[in-house]
Amino acid sequence: MPSLPKHPGESWQLPPRYKVTELIGSGSYGSVCEAEDDFNGQRQPVAIKKCKRIFEDLVDCKRILREVSILSKLSHRNVVKVSDFYIPGDMSRFTEIYMIMELCDSDLKKLCRQDVTLSPIHVNTLLYNLLVGLNYIHSAGIYHRDLKPANCFVNQDCTVKIGDFGLSRAIKGEQKHLKHLPHTPRDGDQAPLPQVPHTKRAAKNLTGHVVTRWYRAPELILLQDNYTEAIDVWSVGCIYAELLGMLPQAGKSYMDRGPLFPGTSCFPLSPDHKHKSDYKYYTNGKHDMLKKIFGLLGTPEQKDIDACIEREDAKRYIACFPKQVGDGLRKVFKEIDAGMLDILEKMLIFNPKTRISVQEALAHPLLADIRDKTLETTSPDVVVLPFEKEPDLDEDLLRRYFNMELRKYHPEVPEYKSSRGYGS
């Protein structure tokens, strides 16, 4: 873990109420630290994400704006909460921003790497909390698109909080037909929740932004345009599979745990420059993502290919794979409960139209003893991101939108008057 400078506050341009205490993560966008928020004399631990040099790459800058904007609109116990947003300096010249978020004990990636085992109640409670968070996100018209263990933060009481929305997509108006439930948080006396071992503070971690394809649904790998929220269900299935590897009956050393589909290549998403159109080349290798998926789940039937694959190059690619039944998930998880295997198999179905939905997964018999419907709240509004429709989202316009986000938390900040005439 990298160490902080001798005087950490000098490199973190924050209001006096925040005192940086420890650096807990770093990545291509910047760093994350633990800090104390001394608001009204009540010190609370927080995580602060610093995004630096944000205008060097406008594509990355838009991802940061997307994350800030989405998180400012979501409010749920299973989604990371942003409590403050800070931009130092002048609106026309700033180069870094700070997101102040709730601090969690760990994340699922770090948890899976701990030399500990989990009981079935731990694993299923983590799954349930993840599904509850996803149900809320989808009700707000958001597809996460990058769910992976490192983006799922966890506390000792098994509460999971979904974060990192930089690759998310807001589907304006497509889910307005959903009947939203009132927000009815749990209260009163409840049975004690299972405790996740080795997550309390010592294992805390917030990782930098790393795009991985191990958790991506086949329709995303195959570059389909008309995908649905089922992409996130596939990702949850992949995460659940890793958690199942922590059960004592899995018989795995913590050093042998890892993703279910650890492919290192991903055609047609990232073709080899020497074999851009040689589909057969990729099916002969051992490390292609779909090769990993088909080796375990079997090649899809033609009716499923026709039902969910639109691109002709993707169909030609799939046709190059030899027909196989697949080893099956039972070969990987020999000793797990039948209910665990059943829900996993239903999440990891090639055809997104027959893949289990979030609502169906929440109602699965496996989760009957854990389920608390009062937690399964939905968003009263569909999230709309106006900047996604801008034909020319240049630096000046990005600054305006960042200013708009800042004013949600600090209305005293003047409206940005851009060189293009935006602002009053």
UniProtKB/TrEMBL annotation:
Domain (Protein kinase) ranges: 18-367
MF-aspect GO terms: ATP binding; MAP kinase activity
UniProt note on regulation of activity: Activated by threonine and tyrosine phosphorylation.
Cofactor: Mg(2+)
Sites where the protein binds ATP: K50
Enzyme Commission no: 2.7.11.24
Known catalytic reactions: L-threonyl-[protein] + ATP = O-phospho-L-threonyl-[protein] + ADP + H(+)
Keyword Magnesium: yes
DNA damage listed as a keyword: no
SUPFAM superfamilies given in the database record: Protein kinase-like (PK-like) (SSF56112)
InterPro entries, alphabetized: Kinase-like_dom_sf, MAP_kinase_CS, MAPK, Prot_kinase_dom, Protein_kinase_ATP_BS, Ser/Thr_kinase_AS
Keyword annotations: ATP-binding, Kinase, Magnesium, Nucleotide-binding, Serine/threonine-protein kinase, Transferase
Family the entry assigns: Belongs to the protein kinase superfamily. Ser/Thr protein kinase family. MAP kinase subfamily.
Name listed for the protein in its UniProt record: Mitogen-activated protein kinase
